[in-house]
Each structure stands twice: as structure tokens, then as C-alpha cells.
Amino acid sequence: MSPSFVRPTRLPPGSRVAALSLSSGFVTEVMNRYQTGVRQVEHEFGWEVVASPNAMRGEAFLSAHPEARADDLHWALQNPEIDGLLSIIGGDDSVRLLPHLDLGVIHSHPKPFLGFSDSTVTLLAFLRAGVTAYHGPSLLTDLAENGGMHPFTVQGIRRALVDAPQPFDLSPAPEWTEHFSDWADTALQGVRRPFAPGDGWQWLQGEAAVQGHLIGGCLEVLDMLNGTPGWPTPALWDGAVLALETSEDVPAPRQVGYWLRNYAAQGILARAAGLLLARPRSYTTEMVEELYGWVRRVLCEAEREDLPVVANLDFGHTSPQLTLPLGAQVWLDPAAGRITVLP
């Protein structure tokens, strides 16, 4: 039986959202990019963006003071003038926030939190506190996209966070990119990155339609969390649809297989209702096929050939991005090729 989660209030135009540096303090080195993200968020959604007290104190300070980052999260949640929370950028050490996070504050003040990558730590903290969290773009990435926010990203955020709650189908992005653009080069901010045509989803296995709650995040960050107090309890995995993605670290397909074997050994795959895999960044065609082979192999070892698996979704380290409400129920229908997020 799936656990239940509090769904935070939506963020209509006029909402005030806090921009948080819960991972890297890199934002102070690319303030033009930050301001672009703020303007584009205000233009597309009508939100007022407010930097949290420690967000702009720089990489050196934030690296030395993870407790200050956690303080900002608690400040945003407890501040009655703040309606939602945005991650400015990811990083690689949010796991250091764990001793300083107060799940009681998250539970008592449920507000939407949007982020991905290293924000997996915070996203799962919300789930552990019984609150839905939103796996989606950060302020410096897709929200500050060169030449304007991509319509696919805008649609995903509107459906998950702005519009009145109703069921909606996920869809493949019509185009995608992983092209690097130097955020420090202000001349490039107005130059649209090159995009490749979308190549759709891959349904790897499974025939029966299933329903379960979303849980997951960045695999490399999940590996850092494994064995810590930040790791989800067994109950949070019961009946879950796992949503997993890889970062610009480009882990080898076999490494992803090893991580999945760990999930099998923990009983997570036995408890799962389904599996969503994001398009892996910087993978060659050969690496993608090897990855799919490892997924099938591990699921066969775990006697889960029945598990519905959908790959090549747009929710990780490529652009544009879906926004996935972690904790929400989703319906996977392999026969119809549909993934539906339920209100």
C-alpha cells in the first residue's frame, strides 16, 4: 500500500518564492544568469523571486557552513510571506545538510519545493516528512534557459505547480539538448542552444497497467544517501514508481546496474510498482543499449520481469525538463503508452 503525502498549496501568479543555495554557492559567479532566471520566472509564472538570507554568501562560506543552508530552508518554510521554494543550482554535498534538517518544520509548513540533481537530498527529506516535493528544473538551468524558457518546461511547471489540480499525461519532449553554454559569457544568454529532434520514450518491459507514488532522483546522490538517515524508510518504497536519472558525471552503464542490484538486495525492486528512467546525459548509442541491457538483467535476477519500465524520459540532466511531483500517484499503461499523473 502506498503511503500518503500532504500536497502543498499551488503557486498562482503573485506568489513569492524563495531562491535557495542548498548545494553549491556558485551563483555569485554568474549573477547575470541568476537575474535572467528571475526575470523569466516572473514573466512566465508571475512569481516574485526572493533570495534567501544566505543564498548569495558565496561558495567558500556555504561550503564551510552547511547549517546555514539548512537554516535557509527552514526560514523559507516558516516565513509566512514565502509561498514556495526554488533550488538555484545543484552541487555535490547536500548530504552534509542531513544533521541540520528538521523534518518537523517541513511537515508543519508544507510548501512546494522545486529542484533536481543534488536537490535529491532535500526532495527526499520532504517525502520523509510526508510532503510532496517537485523534481524539476533549477533557477540557473532550464528556468534561465538561453533565449527564453522552453515551452515544454513551462508546461510541465504549470501543470504540476500553477494550474488547478487535475490529471495530466506526461509526454516526450519534441526536442532536447545537452549542449554546454558558458553561463559566465553574457553574450551567449540570448543565443538559443542547438536542439536535436525528440526521440520518444522506450518501453523496455511490462504489460500490465500499474499505479503507484513517485519517488527517486539522481542516482549518484541516492548513492551518497544510501545507509544514512536521509535514505527513505522501507514503507516509502512500498508500491512506488521509481524515477531515476544520472548526472553529468556520466556513470558507466554497469555502475547503474550495480546500484540497481543494491536496490534489489534491499527489497526495493520487489516493492516497486514501476520504473522511469531519464535520458542519460552524454551517453553514446552503445552506452544506452548497454544500460538497457543492465536494467533488464538486474530485473531478471530480481524476478521482476513483470515490472513496467519506461526509459528516455525528460526529467534529468538534459533540457527541457518535466516537473514530476514526487509523492503523487501516477498511472503507467504500457498498452496505451501512457503515463498519467493523478491529482
Automatic annotation (TrEMBL):
<dbReference type="InterPro" id="IPR027461">
    <property type="entry name" value="Carboxypeptidase_A_C_sf"/>
</dbReference>
<dbReference type="Pfam" id="PF02016">
    <property type="entry name" value="Peptidase_S66"/>
</dbReference>
<feature type="domain" description="LD-carboxypeptidase N-terminal">
    <location>
        <begin position="17"/>
        <end position="136"/>
    </location>
</feature>
<keyword id="KW-0378">Hydrolase</keyword>
<dbReference type="InterPro" id="IPR040921">
    <property type="entry name" value="Peptidase_S66C"/>
</dbReference>
<dbReference type="InterPro" id="IPR029062">
    <property type="entry name" value="Class_I_gatase-like"/>
</dbReference>
<protein>
    <submittedName>
        <fullName>Muramoyltetrapeptide carboxypeptidase LdcA involved in peptidoglycan recycling</fullName>
    </submittedName>
</protein>
<keyword id="KW-0645">Protease</keyword>
<dbReference type="InterPro" id="IPR003507">
    <property type="entry name" value="S66_fam"/>
</dbReference>
<dbReference type="InterPro" id="IPR040449">
    <property type="entry name" value="Peptidase_S66_N"/>
</dbReference>
<comment type="similarity">
    <text>Belongs to the peptidase S66 family.</text>
</comment>
<feature type="domain" description="LD-carboxypeptidase C-terminal">
    <location>
        <begin position="211"/>
        <end position="330"/>
    </location>
</feature>
<dbReference type="GO" id="GO:0004180">
    <property type="term" value="F:carboxypeptidase activity"/>
</dbReference>
<dbReference type="Pfam" id="PF17676">
    <property type="entry name" value="Peptidase_S66C"/>
</dbReference>
<keyword id="KW-0121">Carboxypeptidase</keyword>
<dbReference type="InterPro" id="IPR027478">
    <property type="entry name" value="LdcA_N"/>
</dbReference>
